[in-house]
Amino acid sequence: MEALASNAPNAMAEQVYQRLKSDIFNFRLFPGDRFSEHGIAAHYGVSRTPMRDGLFRLQREGYLEVGFRRGWRVAPINFEQLDQLYDLRIVLELAALDRILSVEHGREAVEALKAVWCVTPEHREADPATMFEMDEDFHRCLVAATGNLEMLRVHNDVTERIRIMRRLDFLKPQRTSATYDEHGKLLELLERNRHAEATILLRAHITQSKVEVRKITLSMLAAARDQKLPFVT
Questions:
Q1: What is d(CA 70, CA 105) in angstroms, rounded to the nearest whole number?
Q2: What is the pLDDT of residue 88?
Q3: How far is CA 15 from CA 11, 18, 21, 85, 229, in A?
Q4: Is the pTM of this model over 0.70?
Q5: CATH, domain 79-218, list 1.10.10.10, 2.30.22.10, 1.20.120.530, 3.40.50.300
C-alpha cells in the first residue's frame, strides 16, 4: 500500500479520514470488522496521530466503534436509524417542493433537471455507480433550488449518512429504470403546477427507496465487498 503523503498534519489527518471512509463505503471495511490502530497505521503508512484523528472523527459520525482493550470495529448497520433518516429526507424534500416554483431560478432548475432525466431509453445511464451519483444530485438540486442554505446543509448531512446503503440500491437494474421514470414524471408534474400529485409521487419515490434498503441483507452486503483488507482481524 502506498503511504499517504502530506507536509501539513491537518491535511494528513483529512487524507486518512477520507481513505478510511472510502474503505467503509466501498465495503473493504465491512460492518463488524475489527482492527487495531497499529495495523491500520502500518497499512496506510502513516503515524498514529493522524490515524487516530481520522478514527475518532469517524466514531463521532457513527461509522466506527471503539472498546477498551478490544480495538476498533466498523459499526453494524442501524436500520432503525436509517428509517429515521429517510423520514427526515422526506420532510426536507417535500418542503423543497413547496418552495421550488415560487423562488427565483426555481423553474430554471426544473428545466435543467428535465434535460438529464426526461430522455429516451437509449440515452439513459446504465452504470450503477454513475446512476447513484446522478440520483443524489437530482435530490440535492431540488433542495438547492429553494435557495435555503440551511435546508441544503441538513439535506447534505442526511444524504451522507444514508449513502453507505443507498448506493447498493442501484445494483438492481429495475431500480435504475424506475428512477428515470419517477424523476421524469415528478419534473413534468412540477412544470404543469400539479403540486399535490408531485408531492404524492415524491413521498412514494423516497419511501420505496427506504423499502429497498430494508431488503438488503448481510449476504448482499458480503457480495458487494471489494476485498478484505490485510489489517482486519
A1: 53
A2: 97
A3: 6, 5, 10, 27, 18
A4: yes
A5: 1.20.120.530
